[in-house]
Design a protein that fits this description.
Number of domains: 1
Strand content: under 5%
Structural class: mainly alpha
CATH architecture: Up-down Bundle
Number of helices: 12
Strand order of the largest sheet: 1-2
Shape: globular
Helix content: over 70%
Oligomer: single chain
Length: 344
Amino acid sequence: MVPPVATVVLLATWGRKPHGMVLVLVAVALVAAVVAAVHHAEVVAHRVGEPFGTLILAVAVTVIEVGLILMLMTTPGRPADALARDTVYSAFMIVCNGVLGLCLLVGALRHHEIEFRVEGATGALATLTSLATLSLVLPAFTTSSPGNSYSGPQLAFAGVASLILYAVFVFVQTIRHRADFVHDHDLHGVRPRGMVALASLGLLVICLVDVVGLAKTESPAIERGVENLGAPQSVVGVAIALLVLLPETTAAVRAAAANRVQTSFNLALGSALASIGLTIPSIAVAAHLLDVRLTLGLPAKDLVLLALTVVVSVMTVAQGRATLLQGTVHLAIFGAFVFLAFSP
């Protein structure tokens, strides 16, 4: 019932400025639509099997993320040049530290020591590191454009390179080396019937439209909340990333608790890859059409945290197994990220 109810709320509030309980209703409908979107994506994913299923989840989350960014970028009177950077960077840190750390912690607490395929994890991490460097690191050091931004040709190159890297990763994950991303414990029950999967696909599309529209209505309240807290505007990007990744985080933690850690890694790293590999090119095209300047390069503090995350992640996946210690380290870095986001 969530998709039609969310649609009704969207139609009733579109183009208006709700306050009080109506605003709370919009927020509830927004969160419910995000959860429902990922639920229906999971149904479709269960139908097509691993690792195609996690790919569908990642793309669904990315569509939500891009929609939220575009809606906030087109909000009048708001500086939106760094919103894409803040959101993508937040998604990277949340996934590689918060989600992975929580999955490792839960899995290790329940199963003492957890295992996953080194080949799939290292391949995903190498692609993710390259995408993050192209999109978030290099713009801070190039000289063709003022500030932490790319020139037009540089942005076009980064966008095309990101799409190619992501496409090759998907090809390797789903066709050429599919076995590297499927663990022996990643067993599924009875697959949903074809009609059930088709119904979920239609409801998934409705949910994605609802999420983007409701986020447009809710965005002024999010920005007011950030201002009232006295936090930097970059916290808006953190809020967007937390919103779109919350349901997927739940799915990843459930998989880790069931000792299907490879599925958790596919979900987490796949969403981060899609977040950068698809979001940056999409936002680059939108910025060109809207004539909006994009600030992509990270400040020094965030560059240090990103580099620390990459180094620790490499050490985590290098042996194909992990314990309680690795999960705690990742969560400590995530805590530092959240704290410094509010107190830079």
